[in-house]
């Protein structure tokens, strides 16, 4: 028996740092990767798809987002099982109980709204642990494991949330206890655990049967999400009484959120940064966050600004990581000697240079003025 494990679609997600028209493209990409699961299921021979929570970004979605999301699910073709998670819990305002969702929900889509066992077909069961609020008072998964018995059925647990071994706050009521999952596996009552919440693909514990699939499309920078953009194709052997499971990741995401850390202390360093940014492929689907440190002359800083302005127009987004960026700007000796000006103007430039070499707000203003002067004089224009 083969199925696709995915999670954290978070359809309707927005990212504030995306450039104007990049946000609609990103939203469309998140829907497209859902529809793409139809091809993955067909190629792999998967019987069904389980979505382990956070199908939607939140419960208050625009009607257009709901309709387009359901149409993407329809395109998958095989049965799709949706688990409400912490972003879209099955509470009083749930998107899953809205008139629009219930009216337009495709026949191949089932919401795992009831905690406990759901039969996929004879001998294959899903054990669902949906969130019914944003603050569960107990481990939502352990609660559905207690009454299971080893009767030969293949069982896949579908849960959502943080596992206790990864979270410092061990007293949080909603934590999923790894010990309870592993005990159920040892008893032979559970054969695979499909988890959502972590946006990176991750095996949990040592059984090989407990996995986070991660989000199928990236949601955060690569220093936070190490391995996003996958779904998991899971094989469970129905003929072997132990029902061993085999997991194969499949890359489906196309966007990247990249963090680049660079030292910039010379014009050559700025040129190298330019080359590195130029070599990054798929710029329309790439978001870059730069952590830059160093000391530059006013001329080199102006070159850096031109570089950043250029690539800001090319990438889906490009920004400086303010907390990790520290660039000192200091006029070099003789840097403004060949501007071809004299008299009062030359004296004013000398005064600006002196102020720029000091500290404080006036120094920052002087450096900005000198940079503007270089741009107006076309010094080093690209």
Automatic annotation (TrEMBL):
Superkingdom in the source lineage: Bacteria
Keyword line: Exonuclease, Hydrolase, Nuclease
Sequence ranges assigned to domain Calcineurin-like phosphoesterase in this UniProt record: 1-164
One annotated GO molecular function: exonuclease activity
Matches recorded under InterPro entries: Calcineurin-like_PHP, DNA_Repair-Maintenance_Comp, Metallo-depent_PP-like, Mre11_N, UCP033093_metalloPase
SUPFAM superfamilies per UniProt: Metallo-dependent phosphatases
Pfam families noted in UniProt: Metallophos
Family per record: Belongs to the SbcD family.
Protein name: Nuclease SbcCD subunit D
Organism of derivation: Mycolicibacterium celeriflavum (Mycobacterium celeriflavum)
């Amino acid at each position: 028996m083969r199925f696709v494990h995915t999670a954290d679609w978070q359809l309707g997600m927005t990212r504030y740092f995306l450039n104007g028209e990049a946000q609609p493209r990103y939203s469309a990409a998140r829907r497209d990767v859902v529809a793409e699961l139809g091809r993955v299921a067909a190629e792999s021979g998967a019987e069904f798809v389980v979505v382990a929570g956070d199908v939607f970004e939140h419960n208050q979605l625009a009607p257009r987002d709901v309709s387009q999301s359901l149409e993407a699910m329809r395109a998958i073709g095989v049965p799709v099982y949706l688990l409400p998670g912490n972003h879209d819990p099955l509470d009083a305002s749930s998107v899953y109980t809205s008139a629009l969702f219930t009216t337009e929900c495709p026949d191949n889509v089932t919401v795992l709204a009831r905690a406990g066992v759901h039969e996929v077909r004879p001998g294959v069961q899903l054990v669902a642990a949906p969130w019914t609020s944003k603050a569960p008072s107990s481990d939502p998964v352990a609660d559905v494991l207690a009454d299971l018995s080893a009767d030969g059925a293949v069982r896949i647990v579908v849960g959502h949330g943080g596992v206790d071994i990864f979270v410092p706050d061990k007293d949080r009521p909603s934590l999923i206890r790894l010990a309870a999952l592993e005990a159920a596996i040892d008893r032979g009552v559970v054969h695979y655990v499909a988890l959502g919440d972590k946006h990176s693909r991750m095996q949990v514990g040592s059984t090989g049967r407990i996995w986070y699939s991660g989000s199928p499309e990236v949601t955060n920078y690569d220093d936070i999400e190490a391995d996003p953009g996958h779904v998991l194709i899971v094989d469970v052997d129905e003929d072997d009484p132990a029902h061993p499971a085999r997991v194969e990741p499949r890359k489906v995401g196309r966007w990247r959120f990249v963090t680049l850390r660079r030292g910039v202390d010379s014009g050559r360093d700025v040129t190298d940064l330019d080359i590195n940014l130029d070599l990054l492929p798929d710029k329309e689907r790439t978001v870059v966050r730069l952590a830059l440190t160093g000391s530059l002359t006013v001329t080199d800083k102006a070159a850096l600004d031109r570089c950043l302005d250029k690539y800001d127009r090319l990438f889906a987004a490009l920004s400086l990581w303010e907390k990790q960026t520290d660039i000192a700007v200091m006029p070099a000796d003789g840097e403004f000697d060949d501007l071809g000006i004299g008299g009062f103007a030359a004296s004013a430039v000398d005064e600006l240079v002196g102020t720029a070499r000091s500290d404080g707000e006036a120094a920052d203003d002087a450096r900005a003025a000198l940079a503007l002067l270089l741009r107006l004089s076309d010094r080093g224009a690209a």
